Amino acid sequence: MIAIGADVHKQQCTLAVQRPDGKLSMLPSMDNTRENWLDLLTQLPPEAQIALEVSTSGHFVMSVLEEAGWRDRAHWVHTAGIDSLRKQKTDRLDAKRLARKLSVMEQDPLPEAWFPPRPIRELRLRARQRCWVAVLRTRVKNRLKAIYRGRGISYQGAEIYQTKQQAEWLGKLNERGVKRRAELLYQQLESLDALVKEARREMLAESRKQKVSRCLRRISTLGSISVALLIATVDTPHRFRTKRQFWTYCGLAVVTRTSADYYFDQGALRRSRRPVVTRGLNQNYNRRLKRIFKQAALTASRRGPFKPYYERLLARGLSEELVRVTVARKIAAVTLAVWKKGAQFDPEKILKPTT
């Protein structure tokens, strides 16, 4: 195998090659453009493989390599843990290091990052776009509320955002500068409402191209937007071997702590009967997924096939907060199982233990 290490930057790319005979040499540096990469790939032999580090520019290069049919021969590498104690660092040394590590990949596997396929990347872009414009709209709404609240003008719910009532609410502002600012915020809100609708439509259209989308939408507590965000975030359920790993990623794993588990009793080592202390849910998790399943649990408490399960837990005397967490874990486990198996959602199996 001919191993090529690429230290990719915004404008330039430094290349090193490790040949089968063990000779390590440098290739001419080149501008980091699509045309240069395609021209380089046509000159490389079929047995060549490329390793490059995870970065924004590396994402661009991986897209070009995928377009040229090099996806199976390209490696997107996390370089943080490679030669972390090395004192010297230059572009040439980084490229040589990647080439050397790639050449011995069979003996020492590379810490590769997952590069999702193009459909998932497109869906992720649509999901980020929808979330981004939704955050901007929320920011404008908060600024509008602050204007009226700061002038002692009370309001209920979302009435101050209604287009038909804008003139009425603007009439309650006596200061000319404040009134003008509110008018501009209303204009921004109107344009952002249109952008949110368009971004939502594009995200849902991209989500429906995924075969698993139809199966997940049959889970009544997950809406179309939640399913689209779920697919864009998780990508593939096979990242998680068990439901407990998925719970940890979603922030639904219970953290326990113990201390002094063993003690000596007359010279014999015995296990302590001290109960395990619960420390709440794990703090390192994906915020978007936790929000999705918490909202699904709240929906399940009101309607849908999960409501009997919710009521049965309440009948045991559990607190409402703990019941919602348990239902969220149940929904996450069912979602993972349906996604992995590609099966239809069966409400009759909800009360049974999931695997």
Short description:
This protein is α/β, with parallel strands linked by helices and 355 residues long. The protein has helices at residues 34-43, 56-67, 91-103, 118-150, 166-170, 176-207, 212-217, 224-234, 243-249, 287-300, 307-315, 320-341; strands spanning 2-8, 12-18, 24-31, 48-53, 74-77, 254-257, 262-265, 268-271, 277-281. β1 (2-8) and β2 form a beta hairpin.
Strand content: 5-15%
Q: Please describe the biggest sheet, giving its number of strands, its sense, and whether it closes into a barrel.
A: 5 strands, mixed
- Report the radius of gyration as a whole number of Å: 27 Å
- Judged by helices, strands and strand pairing, the structural class is alpha/beta
Q: Helical proportion?
A: 40-55%
Cα(first) to Cα(last) distance is: 42 Å
Strand order of the largest sheet: 3-2-1-4-5
User: How would you describe the shape?
Assistant: globular
Task: Explain what this protein looks like in three dimensions.
It is a single chain. The chain is 49% helix and 14% strand. The protein folds into three domains: 2-103, Nucleotidyltransferase, domain 5 (2-Layer Sandwich); 118-207; 212-227 and 234-255 and 282-349, no CATH class. Helix 6 packs across helix 8 (224-234), helix 9 crosses helix 12 (320-341) and helix 10 (287-300) packs across helix 12. The two termini are 42 Å apart. The strands form three sheets. Strands 3-2-1-4-5 form a five-stranded mixed sheet. Strands 6-9 form a two-stranded antiparallel ribbon. The chain has twelve helices and nine strands. The chain has 355 residues and is an alpha/beta fold.
